[in-house]
Amino acid sequence: MRMHENATDEEIALSARKYRQDFAILVERYQDKLLRYIRRIGAGEEAEDLLQEIFINAFRYLNGFDPSLSFSSWIYRIAHNTTISAYRKKKIRPHGNLIEDGDEFLANIGTDEDIATELETKCSVEEINNALLSIKQKYRDVVVLRYVEELEYKEISDVLKIPMGSVASLLSRAKKNLKDEISGKSK
Amino acid sequence: MTKVSDTILKKIEQGKIEPMPVWTYTAKNILFWSLWALAVLIGSIAVSAMLFVVTHAPWALREVTYETTAGFVLDLLPYFWVIALGLMIALGFYNLRHTKSGYKYSLAIVILLNILISIILGAVLFIVGMGEIAENATGKLPLRESIFEMQANRWSNPMNGLLAGEIVDILSADDGEVILTLTAFDDQDWKINISDLSDEEIQEAKIGNIIAVIGLSEQSIDGQLSMYACAFLEWGECCDEPLVSVREIFEDDERTTNCRGVRPFEALRRLSH
């Protein structure tokens, strides 16, 4: 039975366990978001192949989806894990198009005045991207999820499978690292 | 242009890809919860054994068997059980983190929870006697010394005036000397001269009894191992239950000067005051 287009992601995911045609709705809903996301965490020209692999993995693990969590967090987790594992397999470093719109990123990260000023006054989009690429993967992941994908702490906790307290501390350290990286580069 | 969703559905169909069965997720979750529970249970057994060691250690005689209290405590510390508890807490954390929702709990909360459950369950297991069973059962492991072996080794130290074993013979000579034949824990026979002890103590010496002798190891020309006894205590179930109380031993003290200066004996004498 094909689900109605207005059904929630969670309802469609449960239905797609039996009716694989319904899975197409989820693909359509998430293909652009996930493609942007995996590019932001470092995928290069292989991004589209990776996207297919992500959806195939999502279909394979569909019975593992816990309807008490949001489908969005769950599929972001699969996207994150598939991308990271692809880097590890091919032993390649992430590419450099983490953010496209510097203003939006700055607006989101602007809750921390110090770092926002630092970024605003001294950096271009390219410099922010380079700084993001220089910090550790675990820091890059939380920064992208929080300030680029604009996920809540709870969602980041579900995507990265870490406690919410760890999300906050990782984010704080990530911002410090980012600031140090930018300060260092600008000197 | 082909839609991404069509390509993916085609690949799923061509590759005959099916969602992994529900039971694999359920089984994985049950497995990790069970391993967590097992780790907590083993940790609790470790706590019960620690409680057993601490409560059954021969605290009263520590000055007799050890030169310093620090030495006694260091020897007594249940390293094996502390390491076992640490490993189980780490294993418990690992397993809990791999359950479906385990990632939501912080390291500190999981560890504190594991320790708390281990202590509470460990206390219950100690009360029902699990501590002693665990201490006994693991005593034979390589590099492991149970509290029983630790005490047996401590009392197999004749050069320092401590010797324990079973009385296999009692000989009273015409000149008033009373000699016990004692088979020590290493199966060597010792002649123990108990002539210096009070009549009450001598009457307590019976063939088949296991005793702990405090005395002076003596040189013998014929190679016979011998000791001059200053006092003896019955080897209790866990070496801390003297047959005659320490105070009684020295109630009517008319001993010769042979034992003066023998460190364990002087320590025992101090306990009586």
UniProtKB/TrEMBL annotation, chain A:
GO biological process terms held by the UniProt record: DNA-templated transcription initiation
Chain ranges of the RNA polymerase sigma factor 70 region 4 type domain: 127-178
Q: Which residues form a coiled coil?
A: none
Instruction: Domain (RNA polymerase sigma-70 region): give its ranges.
Output: 26-91
**MF-aspect GO terms:** DNA binding; sigma factor activity
Any idea which UniProt keywords this protein has?
A: DNA-binding, Sigma factor, Transcription, Transcription regulation
Q: Which domain of life is it from?
A: Bacteria
Looking up Pfam families in the UniProt record yields: Sigma70_r2 (PF04542), Sigma70_r4_2 (PF08281)
Q: Which family does it belong to?
A: Belongs to the sigma-70 factor family. ECF subfamily.
The record's PANTHER family line, in alphabetical order, gives: RNA POLYMERASE ECF-TYPE SIGMA FACTO, RNA POLYMERASE SIGMA FACTOR HI_1459-RELATED
Name of the protein: RNA polymerase subunit sigma-24
Can you name the source organism?
Answer: Candidatus Uhrbacteria bacterium CG_4_9_14_0_2_um_filter_41_50
